[in-house]
Design brief:
alpha+beta, Beta-Lactamase, Heat Shock Protein 90, 3 domains, 5-stranded antiparallel β-sheet
């Protein structure tokens, strides 16, 4: 459950005898006319809904929120902790402090913020919340959000990550042995020019396995960010030039559109470079000879939007929902890991990565990252 605007949230202890908050959810639950229709929609919609006043006071908790959390609205209201119900839903003080700090940083600007809620029976559930405060303001509600229970998806992803990490570990040792043996054989047979074509093939395949191992390792372990402040335009310009030079097809055209003003971002530079590498390599691999690859960068005050567009065949309609799945690829020789890793790193920064097809043809990958990712 997300709370009021981060800078206004108050967690000071409440007196046991203090009367309930004056601006209660009952005021909203008793409206007539159009507001009554809105109340019925919000009460019965299949997503968690929570609302707070300008002081952080708890106002609303719909039926889906009651089902997922195990706590009824009445129980939360009657609690001696009312209107500050955080300790009931997030009983661990350390985790609660993290939420507070992150909420103060984000304010009402958050999408799919995943939080681990503790049910009344003690079970942990993961909910992804998005703020609706600015999109649909409601009188008396300073902040409100909707959330979806994503516990099963998170658990499945954790299981996949453990499996991938195990596979990467099992590949690492034999790959090292193959590489060392190859170098020894190559050194002893340097005088055999007839074997060089075969050595070249082996070298390419070994490097391909190393790259795949690196991708598996990134996919299978949690992302730990080390963000710092840097100039975005300079970073993108340098990264873009390096990617241009690395493209095997020299006929490709590259266009980078940057904002006219400098932008300071707080990102993990290494992880963001990996995102750019993966998205650009995807565009390069699917572009026709002489095709144009365009990267447009827009500054949206609190977020940076980067659009990668190529002139390739685009995504098949049935593949759009699977584009970021690990090991899913229509390209011959592709591993299906690049886009999935890029999405994982983007989400670790609090951002998103989406795919689409351009009306004129070609694929579009939209990357959005908050200007300040992580904690300073």
């Amino acid at each position: 459950m997300i709370l009021a605007q981060g800078s206004k949230l108050c967690m000071s202890p409440m007196s046991q005898n203090q009367p309930p908050h004056s601006n209660s959810g009952d005021e909203f639950r008793s409206f007539d006319g159009p507001m009554e229709h809105l109340r019925l929609v919000l009460e019965h919609m299949p997503v968690v809904l929570s609302a707070f006043d300008q002081d952080g006071g708890f106002l609303y908790w719909n039926q889906e929120a009651e089902r997922v959390s195990g706590w009824s609205f009445e129980e939360l209201r009657e609690s001696s902790l009312f209107p500050y119900v955080l300790p009931l839903l997030y009983p661990d003080q350390g985790y609660r402090d993290q939420i507070m700090a992150e909420w103060a940083r984000r304010g009402n600007q958050y999408r799919n913020w995943e939080l681990e809620l503790t049910r009344k029976d003690g079970e942990k559930r993961v909910l992804a919340f998005s703020s609706v405060s600015d999109l649909a303001p409601i009188p008396g509600w300073a902040s409100w959000s909707v959330g979806v229970d994503v516990t099963e998806r998170v658990r499945a992803q954790e299981a996949i990550n453990q499996l991938v990490a195990g596979v990467a570990h099992e590949i690492r040792n034999p790959l090292f042995g193959i590489s060392a043996t190859f170098e020894a054989i190559h050194a002893s047979l340097k005088g055999r020019p007839d074997l060089e074509p075969h050595f070249a093939v082996l070298r390419v395949e070994i490097e391909r396995l190393r790259s795949m191992l690196s991708d598996l390792t990134d996919l299978g372990r949690p992302v730990v960010l080390s963000p710092h402040t840097f100039d975005l335009s300079c970073f993108l310009d340098t990264s873009f030039k390096l990617l241009q030079h690395s493209a095997l097809d020299s006929s490709l055209k590259f266009t980078l559109e940057l904002p006219p003003h400098p932008i300071q971002v707080f990102w993990d530079q290494g992880r963001v470079r990996q995102i750019l590498d993966n998205l650009m390599n995807n565009a390069i691999q699917h572009s026709p000879q002489g095709g144009d690859i365009k990267v447009e960068v827009r500054d949206a005050v609190t977020e940076i939007h980067l659009r990668f567009q190529d002139q390739g065949p685009g995504f098949a309609p049935e593949d759009l929902s699977r584009a970021f799945e690990p090991f899913f690829s229509r390209r011959q020789g592709g591993t299906g890991l690049g886009l999935g890793i890029a999405k994982k790193f983007a989400e670790a920064h609090g951002g998103s990565l989406r795919c689409a097809n351009a009306p004129e043809g070609g694929a579009i990958l939209d990357l959005s990252l908050p200007i300040f990712s992580g904690r300073e």
